[in-house]
Amino acid sequence: MKNYLIRRILQIIPVFLGILFILFFIISKAPGSITDNIMDPRMTPEMRAALQEKLDPNLPFYVKFWNWIVEALHGNFGFSNQHYKPVVDVIGANIGCTFALALTAMILSMLIGIPAGIVSATRQYSAVDNVLTVFSLAGLAFPTFFLGLLLLKVFAIDLRWFPIFGLSNATLAHAPFLTRLGDMAYHLILPAIVLGLAETASFMRYTRSSMLEVIRSDYIRTARAKGLNEKVVIYKHAFRNAMIPIVTLLGFRIPGLISGALMTETVFSLPGVGKLSVEAVNTRNYPLLLGINAMLTMTTLIATLVADVLYAVVDPRIRYD
Amino acid sequence: MNKKLMTTALSSVLAMSALAGCSGSGGDAKQILRFGVSGFEGAFNPIISSNVYDAWVCDLIFEGLVNVDPEGGYVGELAQDGWVIDEDKHSYTFTLKDGIKFSDGTDLTTADVEFTYNTIKEADYAGPRTAVGAAIEKMNVIDDKTIEFVITPNDFGPAAIENFTYGIISKEHYQHSDWQSLNMLNEKPLGSGIMTLDSWAAKQNVILVKNENYWDAANAAKIDGVNFVNIEEDATLLASLANGEIDFCQLQAKKENVEEVGKTDGIHLVSYLANGYTYMAFNTARPQLNQKEVRQALLYALDRPSFLKQEYGADELAALGMAPISKTSWAYPGDDELNAYSYDLDKANKLLDDAGWTERETVTRTDGSTIECRKNANGDLLQVEWLVYPEATWPTTLSGLAFDSWGQIGVNLIVKQMDFNTVSATTKAGNHGEKNFDIYTMGFSLSVDPDPTGGLFDGDSIDEGSYNCTSWRDERSQELMIAGKQEFDQAKRAEIYKEWAKIQNENVPTAIVAYRAEIWGISDKVSGLDDIGVYTDWTSLVKNVTIAQ
Amino acid sequence: MTTLDRNEIIKQSAKKDSYWRGVWRRLKRNRLAIVSAIILIIIALACILVPMFSKYSVSATDVAAADSPPTAEHLLGTDNIGRDLLVRLFYGGRISLGVAISVTALECVIGIVLGAVSGFFGGIVDTIIMRISEVFMCFPFLMICITLQSIFGTSVKVLIFILSILSWPSIARIIRGQILSLREMDYMEACRALGISNFRQIFKHLFPNVLAYVIVYVTLSMASVILTETSLSFLGLGVSPPTPTWGNLIQAARNLLILKSKWWYWVPPGTMIFLSILCFNILGDGLRDAIDPKMQL
């Protein structure tokens, strides 16, 4: 087990470096530069070249890659010339929103998806099961942006139940902390529903199949044979065992949550990392783009690692070789 | 444990706010002007800000030597009117008004003015005003209130006044050792304007409060502050305006927006033709596009009036593009002097026949259909690639029309969609004659002075990285541009620009597609903002604004 | 030797025949899956036939009839420069479904070959291929799309190429996992004992066993490619206009004013996207249940 853990951690490093290396290569081939955004008709090509040299010196991509790694080991992740701030500060200002959104969506989807999955499994092939199954398939079939636009139209524009945009109400900037937290939560309801729907659907499907597998297993049959109350069987014995793979699943859902957050943030104009990365691409803000991608890749890799390890711990059938 | 606590707290807050959500804002006795906008980035320094949103914030916090008047002329802001222009010494001399103070109470003197422009001229300055620094040869501080700027011979002329509109920063506050330490002060601005920065949050808001120490009591703000509220989608802006979440905003010039504002109580619209245009640039180094007859034919075969009607809807929202000078400028030659290239497929066909594109070859278009594509004697197909970006809808609409109508005159159009920055980078790459595109379309904003040098039509800036990507150069056009830049007499300048505009209109290396309007939605509660105009920025009106409760 | 081989093939194919017949029998019982398959066939037929028989062509504009809600002339209305939206909807379906089919085919070819190689040879080859697949799975999708499109252009072909290149790892990992577990089974041991070559072992014996997985994966992958193409178009990174795709058509709904009051622009393509993804998902689920309910896909 210990060897397995060490090996998995060591495997992360080449993958991480590989992704960064290819990213540096791609960026070196991508058209456009940071100076495009600060052009002025009166700037001569010489002025522009001088500016480029100051902001982003013209070096081979592997040299830039190497420099980035060395600097990163010293805790310096670059400077965003568009924001005139260190990359870490820019990401820091945006990560709270993404975190709150993903967390809320995840909680919502667990609260709905897991009970629905249990109901569906215990009444397999019933009308309830069919409705829930179709609902979960529909949830997976809705493009995030399309659902977001629809909810915006109905609940924010037509009915005016929810705010249309953003993360906070500017007039509350100096209000007490709890009021602002409440205001933020209010702004996050619609986006969290949109992001949570697909997650809810997948939780439901996983719970259902996991429950079905457990219900069909020998020890549940034994429990029933012993004459235990059906409710006790389902909720005490079956549920507990079915939950183990579902909990480990959380780790595997993180990459999906991040990419879902990107679209959701775009539709609802939320100041999160997803939206920041779209902007970084659009403005050719490469230091920021590298910082964001390094962070997201690391998060994904670590989440997968944790899930893998948890899964191995839970399921003795997995071999560590 | 911690995470569990947090999730419990968050979900209970969520439930609470869902119930109490609608009770929202209100009860604020302060008069705050709320502006719906997106794109501010926190570079609140007038010599560093590189986008219009940060520049608006700067305009409220800082003041420059001069400012633009509603007619497009210049008036003193920090400087007294009647500055002296010495044509022999190539210099502008300004005298400051009396009693100017920064918002912290310190005096603003010529030392601060000199410091501001010296900062731009520093070796490691990496901001967008490099050209301003290069235009100023040197400065002579005559006394506390008088300063002389010597302009480089190339830049000297009536348009040089534009170098003096940027805000003046405090020498004491902005002491710095290098470029990065200067940027550390971007979020702690100190200027002499009517507002000061209270706080800001990226992608959320910028909160400005009244400068209580404003030096010119008669012109101090009547309201207590201005909030910039981040809103990204255009329709979202309008809905927020209707809901009363914001007091005013700029909207896209579309008939739907005009109709929607008309239908909504409590808000009204201000619109004017903007100082800029959308254009279509041809790569004249391409064999298909190096004859002016072909370029003219492509224009005749483009139904621009229908395009304007479908894309903008109402007459007041756009005008047919004619010459590379804004319709609002004194330098505009008048519609009669120019060819409007009215939609006429017969004329287009005739021009192409006369230009030698008489042979035909069957080609399959990108949508799967086939046309008889024109060919010339060299065997070149009349086939063009048009770079279209998806960030705005009009290039897609216009190219959709062209795909059909150009097909009818035997031109095979291939639309290539790429993001805005890629279009910009692709067209700017390579020196003249080596560019790798056929046609692209974009929008362009003009400065107040009509001087076109360095821009889309300057035959001396056709190489890598410059704005003019057409590879087209004409001696007479160049002479006229230089003469216009040096002439101080406005009537003579207008004559020069008329001749120049006609040359461009005849040869169309770059065709002007449309002049667009800018429209603003304003709450009826706000008074004092209705004078927004092509040369009157809303920031210059804030001092007059009052808000009814 | 040869007789034994032939006998085994005959036995296996007989087994396979009844095996697939059993799958079909189980699938037929799943009414939802059958309905989905029928809907998909109808959509596909409409995409082929409607543009062939309509009197309007895909790119023909008519500004006099622009912005019209559905009428007898234009059953699904027209867009802002007067193009018939019914023809564009089904022509767009050809492109969208075509892209989905091509991407799925291409990613399966890449994924199956790499997955099989990885699973069968193991060791350093396996390690390298699996690390590469992890690199591809963690890629910043958007950046890659913009860069590749700016280098290679924005045609349908380029889009297919980009999507396939970025999506092969999942099928590769599935195939590898299957091969790893099948390799341990007895009849493979027997093959090895009989001295059948590596290549033949992979393609003759293992392949039929993973076919079931591929079929289910293909169905589900169709749904996810449609979703990806739509999302890319929503961000303006899809196929270049004026060629319609479902994604390009629904992009109009980014303008909330169209979303609010001009339903005929976006409801039909939205419905088509939703319906086809839903049907592919249901069909995929049904196939999985009919083949092997315990399949982890």
Features:
heterotrimer, A: 321 residues, mainly alpha, MetI-like fold, two-stranded antiparallel sheet, 11 helices, globular, C: 297 residues, 77% helix, 0% strand, elongated
The average pLDDT of chain C is 82
Strand order of the largest sheet of chain A: 1-2
CATH first level of the domain at 97-314 in chain A: Mainly Alpha
Instruction: Tell me how many strands of chain C there are.
Output: 0
Helix tally of chain A? 11
CATH superfamily of the domain at 97-314 in chain A: MetI-like
CATH hierarchy, class of chain C? Mainly Alpha
SSE succession of chain A: HHHEEHHHHHHHH
Task: Give the proportion of residues in helices of chain A.
Answer: over 70%
- Share of helix among residues of chain C? over 70%
What would you say this structure looks like, in words?
The complex is a heterotrimer of chains A (321), B (549) and C (297). Chain A is mainly alpha-helical and 321 residues long. Chain A has a domain at 97-314: MetI-like (MetI-like fold, Orthogonal Bundle), CATH 1.10.3720. Chain A is built from 11 helices and 2 strands. Chain A has helices at residues 2-29, 45-55, 61-73, 87-122, 127-141, 144-158, 177-215, 218-225, 230-268, 273-282, 286-314; strands at 79-80, 85-86. Chain A has a two-stranded antiparallel sheet with strand order 1-2. Chain A is globular and about 85 Å long. Chain B is an alpha+beta fold. In chain B, 28% of the residues lie in helices and 22% in strands. Chain B has 14 helices and 22 strands. In chain B, the strands form 5 sheets. In chain B, strands 1, 8, 9, 10, 11, 12, 13, 14, 17, 18, 19 and 20 form a 12-stranded mixed beta sheet that branches. Chain B has a 4-stranded antiparallel beta sheet with strand order 4-5-7-6. A two-stranded antiparallel sheet of chain B has the order 2-3. The longest helix of chain B is centred in the N-terminal third of the chain and has 19 residues, at 2-20. Chain B is globular and about 75 Å long. With 297 residues, chain C is mainly α. Chain C has helices spanning 2-29, 31-53, 85-121, 123-137, 141-152, 156-183, 186-194, 198-234, 246-250, 256-261, 263-291. In chain C, α2 packs across α3. The mean pLDDT of chain C is 82. Chains A and B meet through α2, α4, α6, α7 and α10 of A and α1, α4, α5, β10 and α6 of B.
